[in-house]
Amino acid sequence: MNKKIISLTAILLCFLSVSLVSCESDDEGGNYVSPNYVAATWNLTAIGALNANSTLIYEPVTEGSCDRQTLIANEDLTFTRNFFVTTDGVCAPKTVTGTYLLDQGNIVATYVPEGMTESTAITYDIITLSDVTLEVAYTDAVSHELVFLKYAKSVPSVN
């Protein structure tokens, strides 16, 4: 009886071993395409900066604020940024379009500034990227200060 149990156990273990081994290697690369998790519509929710103690402090962006903006990152690696600038105390809407690429934890956005003919690029370091939050940091070209931006993914409304 013990020999039958041992034989049955050995056969069962051999069967399980063979069934768990794949004939193809999953490490061959194949046609896997990394998903672009940045592609979405993002609404700015907070702007952050480091204080004198190097503590990151965020200020929320309110609905009527001139700081509000929307970033639309498309699957084809183009983007549209809708934002506001203050001119003579009045918030005026602006739009910038361009391209972006994802490069080792960074978003590199390239666009042609208004009134210019040559493109410029800004590198945003990705701090957090989830299915609902995008948090990035970049160095402001004018003030040379580190700026932090928090975005929330815009969820389409269901009618």
TrEMBL record:
Keywords: Signal. Residues 1-23 form the signal peptide. It holds the Pfam family Lipocalin_4. PROSITE patterns: PROKAR_LIPOPROTEIN. The keyword Signal applies. Residues 40-135 form the Lipocalin-like domain. This is Lipocalin-like domain-containing protein.
